[in-house]
Amino acid sequence: MRRHGRRDGNHAKVRDGLRDAGYKVADLGSVGGGIPDLLVKGHGRMMLLEVKDPAQPPSARKLTPAEAAFFAAWGDACAVVLTIEDAIRAMRGTLPACPTPDAPSSKDWLPR
Question: Is residue 24 part of a domain?
């Protein structure tokens, strides 16, 4: 298990954009171990968001096995986001929640 997480290139932009939009954000990006990058609260909702970099190829954006295990345990309390727009949609409940093995888009996020 990794002891410290690695931040994607767009991590700060998503974090700061959420703060600018009025959300409270705890940056968990250095925690590692499959824990999502951001804990976000606002407008009656709290979620864990995993930031992936859209500049990376799809294979580099897949969840790690540790992330996939965390998401499987936490269900709809987490989401994968690529942009600040995704993050705001997740917080509004209009972005599909955490991928699961039976989700139609799971091939895009889950490790093989």
Answer: yes
Contact 37/49 with Cβ under 8 angstroms?
yes
Residue 6 lies inside a defined structural domain of this protein: no
Verdict on whether the full-model pTM lies above 0.90:
no
DSSP string, 34-79: T--SEEEEETTEEEEEEE--TTS-GGGGSPPHHHHHHHHHHGGGEE
* Closest to 97 in 3D by CA, of 48, 62, 57: 48
At residue 95, the pLDDT reads 77
81: which DSSP letter?
E
Domain ranges, residue 82 = 11-109
The DSSP result for 91-108, as a single string, is: HHT-S--S--TTSTTHHH
